Amino acid sequence: MGILLFLMLQGVDILPVVFLAGIVGAVLYFNFRKQRGHDSNIASVERNTCTISFDDIGGQEVAKNELIEALDFMKNDEQIKLLGIRPLKGILLSGPPGTGKTLLAKAAAQFTNSVFLSTSGSEFVEMYVGVGAQRVRRLFDQAKEAAKKLKKSSAVIFIDEIEVLGGARGQNHGNQEHDQTLNELLVQMDGISSDEGVKLLIIGATNRVDMLDPALLRPGRFDRLVKVDLPDKKGRLHILKLHTRNKPLAADVSIGALAKDTFGFSGAQLESVTNEAAILAMRDASENITSSHFRSAIEKVMMGEKLDRLPSKEEKHRIAVHESGHALIGELRLPDSVASVNVASRSNALGYVRQTQENDMYLYTCDYLKSRIAVALAGVLAEELIFSNRSTGGSSDFKHASDMAKQIIYSGMSELGIISVEDIPRDQLHSAITSILREVENDTRDLLSGYKSVLEQVVELLLDKETISGDELRFLLKNSNHSECA
Known about the structure:
Elements: H1 2-9, H2 15-40, E1 44-46, H3 61-75, H4 77-82, E2 90-94, H5 101-111, E3 115-120, H6 131-149, E4 154-160, H7 162-165, H8 177-190, E5 199-206, H9 214-217, E6 222-227, H10 233-244, H11 255-261, H12 267-283, H13 291-303, H14 313-333, E7 338-342, E8 352-355, H15 366-387, H16 395-410, H17 426-450, H18 452-465, E9 467-469, H19 470-478
Parallel strand pairs: 2-5, 2-6, 3-4, 4-5
Antiparallel strand pairs: 1-3, 7-8, 7-9
Helix pairs in contact: 6-8, 10-11, 10-12, 12-13, 14-15, 14-18, 15-16, 15-17, 16-17
């Protein structure tokens, strides 16, 4: 102010300087207000007790049991003191996206009658030094304040994508802000005590446990690692029942069949299937959701919406032959595995065969893997049988077949026996892969030749109807007359 007064007495026009200083001051002031507002609300708080319970979550019985056991420590405070049990401070939920990690955290808050605070690891990422650590401190203070305000004795802090916040230290050489933020989280978790007025439980969620700093995973911080995996058939059945309980189902809908057809689906995908089926029923002005609506919904969730891409008559014929080859060998080598065969374009696929399996499998034999290779090669071999040439449509099939051949070799089920994956010479690996593929290719070619008439019938049906079910394919096979029937 003294300098400005001196310049004014000297006759210098100071208005531009004052104007510029005012703009800079206003920008800094509003930025500061915005920053304070963001930090004071680093997590969203559920003002009422969460309405989601463990009964509303299907397909995760093991994860629920693990979580409930840990939460019992918060509910039975006096009993654990008598037994000298140290309360758990943190639980880490690990699993693929869409498996219900956030739902489990909300159910945990409901189970313990706790305040639920939800945030994400990306909320703590900041280029300014000290801001991330300040937000961590504010998060823990906010949890205690919210619990006291709502007159609750405990709070659950849920941090999604915790690998962003808790990634291994020392990897960001240009900026130490990440390491300081993680250090503050470690300090705050160490400071959690059961003697405080508000009991805190930290629940983290990630699908990249390998990225987390080892200090975060040691006992006393995240004490339990709970695996939240894709649901098995029983779990899918439970999830589908939960998501269809408010939907009018037609008499031909079998929830058990849907659970079988959705192998590998996450809980989020199963919810999407039921929702898409209801949308399709609304489009058709149907009062009930039929099995055809569910079949179309499964294919849409797996492959995407149908495209307007219209191949030429010759291309469509070749696509039908290719997919018929996949379907025929799939049903012959793996009975009852084909759910549907389609020549309608979806996403990047000109046509596709949807396969299922009766029971979930976790171990694969050499014969099973060779059957999968045969299904992958059958498309181009069918083209070769009908057109006497091949097309580029089998490039992704070949990659899939090669990957499964490698799996046979790496598992010690090839002629090489038990090997070291890192030490096997490239030419020896190539020779072993080629040997497996040639063997399966020759067997599949012979099998297709014996069923050529059935192949042609399937092609005609596909060209006429665009889609056929696995039951229709099995009916054709059952009533066929070919050289291998006897």
